[in-house]
Each structure stands twice: as C-alpha cells, then as structure tokens.
Amino acid sequence: MGLYMRAKKKIILFLLLGLFLGGATLTTTTPVQAHRETITVTASSVNVRMGPGLAYDVMAQLKKGDKITVIAHKNSWYQVRLHSDKIGWVASWLLKNTEISATTNTKGTIIANNVVAKEHPADDSDTLGTYQQGNPVTVIYKKNGWSQILFHKTVAWIRSAYITEKKAPSTKQTQKTVDPNIKNVTVHSDNAKLRKKPGLGGKITKVLKRRTQLTYLATIGDWYQVQTDSGKTGYIANWVVTPSASNAPITTNANNLAEATIVLDPGHGGRDSGALSQKKTYEKTYTLAIAKKVAKQLRQAGARVLLTRKSDKFATLASRPALAQKVHADAMISLHLDSSPKDNEASGITTYYYGKSKDSLLGKTLNKQLTKLPIKNRGVEFGNFLVLRENKQPAVLLELGYINDKHDYRQIRSRKFQTKVADAVTTGLSHYFQ
Ligand SMILES: [Zn+2]
After folding, report:
1. Where is the SH3b domain (predicted)?
2. Going by DSSP bridges, is the β-strand pair 377-382/349-353 parallel, antiparallel, or unpaired?
3. pLDDT tens-digit map of 62-119
4. d(CA 392, CA 263)
5. Ligand 1 midpoint to CA 335 (Å)
6. SS3 assignment, position 289
7. Residue 430 alpha carbon to ligand 1 centre in Å
8. Residue 56 domain-assigned?
9. Longest Cα separation, the chain
10. How far apart, in whole angstroms, are the C-alpha atoms of residue 144 and residue 394?
11. How confident is the model over 280-318, as pLDDT tens digits?
C-alpha cells in the first residue's frame, strides 16, 4: 500500500520536473513554426517520455485516436503538448506506426506475496522492487510469460503468472479484426479455456495446457479467435496467451539511435592499467575519459548508454559482454589504445570485429567516421578478443591510436581529439541505426 502512495507522489514530482526540463530543452530543439502541427495517433498505444529518447522515463501514454500538438522536433522525437497540457516527448515514427505499439494498458492485481519486479524479463535480471498480494499494477506489455508494468516513474517486469488482470468483460461485442502481425499465440497460464464465443460467458469447449500453441485467426475485443492443431476453432482470452511474431517490446530492435541501448566499454581499469605512454600515463585513464565523452554525446542524441565501468575500477573481461547481453544492447563499443613493443614504432586507429554478420557492419560504419580523425586509419580487421567473441550483441573494439607513439599520444591526451572521437562514434552509430 505504502508503495503505491509513494509511487504516486514520485510521479507527480517527476511530472513537474518534466515540465521544467521540457522548457529547458526547448532552446536546443527546432520549434515548429506558426501553425502548430496536430497529429492523430494511429498506433494502439504510444509512450510519452520525459525527454527525447528511450532512456527517459514514461510519463503518460497515448491511445489510438488521441490528438496531440507538436511543439518541437529533436532527433526524430516530437515534443508534444498533451490535452492535459502536460509536455512530453514521443518517438515520431511510433505515432504513425501501427506495428510497434504496446498492448492496451490493463489494470492488474498481484496474487502472491514477495513478487519481485525485475529490470528485464529474466529471473536473473536486477530486482527493482517487491510486491505483495493485493498490490495494484498497470500492465503495458506482455511477452514470453512476463508482463511489463508501470513501476514508479519507469517500467519493470513481473512474471505474468503473478498478476490477475481485471479486464472488464466487454458487454457489447466489438468488431472482428485481423492483426497481420500475429501468427500464433502460445498459452502461458495453466488450464486456459477455449470458448465457443468470445467473453467469459462463452461455453468452454476445451481446456488447454500451458505452452499450447494455437493458430491466430482474428481479434474480437480482448479475445482471440484461434485454431488448435486438431482443427478446432474457438475463442481464448488475450491475457492467457502470448502472441508471437507480433509487437516488439519498446526497448529492442532500435532503428534509430534515439531508441538504442549502447554499452561503452572503457578498456582496462583499476589494477589493470593497460598500455603505457612514454610519459608513463596509462591507457585505462584515456579509455575512460573518451568513453565519458562518447556517452555524453550519445545521451544527447537520446540513446540509452551504459558503461562497463564508470571510474578507475577493475572489471573482469567476462563482465563486459555480460553487461551488453543483460541490457540487450543494440551495440557495444570497446575502447582501447594500441601499443607497439618499441616506442614510436607504429601509429594509427584500428577497428576490430569478430562476427562477420553480427559485427562487421557496425565496424565498417563506425570506421568510416573514424577516418576523419587526425590519426591515420589502419582500417577494419578481424579481432579475436574475448569482449567480441563472447558477445551476443553487435560489438566492436576500437584501438584509437598508439599510446606509445609520440604523434598519436599528443592527440589521445587532448580533449579536442577525445571530443572528435565522440562526434565520430555518434555519427557512425546514427548511420548504423538508420
Ligand atoms: Zn587495451
């Protein structure tokens, strides 16, 4: 109960903060001139965020048919005024895209004690909080037996089995529609009932086991018309099944930098100093400085950015690709500096990839921008590094010059060069996600 009240207070606080930030960011956006654009939402549900990027918290949701006023554009995000007069940001491409949308929000109730809310739909992901029996939740999306819920000012995941959803059984039958994105549905609760007609009053014709797959035929309100393997057709409640080949969750498959999650991996750290310059300064110092500059620019572009280390701390090699996997990074960039056995023996920037299909496009796209840096470019090469090899997400490793080369080092230590690296990576990634 306390949790719910606190959440409410926090939401109000963040809405106020959002208004303030919204005003503050106006200076860097492109205002829409004279006639303000009004847009009608065509997707079934679109998140309104506190800022122009997925990293920002969700403050409200728009539904199909809602009309909103666009105040400004930034990085493919619209700053909008909702009809409650609140100001927030929405991804421009979601507004007109009926494919990428969350399911309609539903209210639910937790049915057990000590139910954990996870950062991601996985048991081993970080726990954000705990719910007790009877606590209310708002479900915004479901996949693979997990429900994405509004959690304080942001979102979290709970195993769907711990939530009962209060779907008001619709009395008036809505129209039958066919969602082209749904191919099959999979039962995710025990003893799911197939009914002759849509609605809880429909006669039960079959009881289905968890993981039963059904062919999707059509949607009527909150019900799916489906067909079993044996050819039997009927209706099943949409809250006991998970549709497949349908809506993607809002945090994956970024096709825009602003919607992407990027992991930056500053090489070495702590007791692992990396290579040494002729001035006895460490590789780990510069990789971190560069990573911070890159992170700042990527965040300004709206991306969600995580670092494998944020300070001069030791991090194991294995923990680095593990973070990328944990957050489902759309790209990971490992930052290093080269060194040759003898000083001033070699110079240049090299981009390494491991997986031809997974990583090489990312490498090529980034390297194209790195050629603009004032250190010679050695091109894109295959590299058998653990951080790449053990990485399930697209990843590259950049050797941004030779730390023990006089010319390269002069650049590496300069802030101007570090900023140019950030420019190059940001531009490269924005091309990669187009
Ligand atoms: Zn290194």
Report:
1. 36-99, 180-244
2. parallel
3. 877 888 877 777 766 788 877 666 778 887 766 653 322 333 457 788 988 889 998 8
4. 13
5. 7
6. helix
7. 25
8. yes
9. 82
10. 23
11. 999 999 999 999 999 999 988 888 899 999 999 999 999
